[in-house]
Design brief:
Layout lengths: L8 H12 L11 H41 L5 H11 L5 H10 L1 H23 L1
Helix pairs in contact: 1-2, 2-4, 3-5, 4-5
């Protein structure tokens, strides 16, 4: 029986996987079976951490806003600021508020003071 030469498809698939894992260390970049396992693990971690990154950034923005708000006034907190923003229907998200808090604190103080004045004024007129 004559010898049949295998096609190039399997070799091409393995080289593609090797290119993905070329930066890995040791057997993780040399052995095909180990490379495949590491590729699956890397893709799972990447998928999980994309959601994680969004969560972490939101926590960071909230912390920054809260720190700047509490510097000036002890009684005013982050939660009250966000609540009053929604009441006032101002469209400022947490990312923008955090950038304002870092770059220009006085601007954030002015925003919060205006919100406090209007909300307090509306509440005092309701009571009467």
């Amino acid at each position: 029986m004559t010898r049949i030469k295998r096609g190039y498809i399997a070799r091409r698939r393995r080289t593609k996987i090797r290119l993905f894992a070329s930066s890995f260390r040791g057997a993780h970049s040399r052995l095909t079976r180990t490379i495949t396992q590491q590729k699956i693990r890397a893709l799972v971690s990447a998928h999980r951490d994309r959601d994680r990154k969004k969560r972490d950034f939101r926590r960071l923005w909230i912390t920054r806003i809260n720190a700047v708000i509490r510097e000036r006034e002890v009684s005013y907190s982050y939660s009250r600021l966000i609540h009053d923003l929604y009441k006032k229907q101002l469209l400022l998200n947490r990312k923008i508020l955090a950038q304002i808090a870092i770059s220009n604190r006085n601007c954030l103080y002015m925003i919060s003071n205006e919100i406090i004045k209007e909300v307090d004024w509306k509440e005092s007129t309701r009571i009467i």
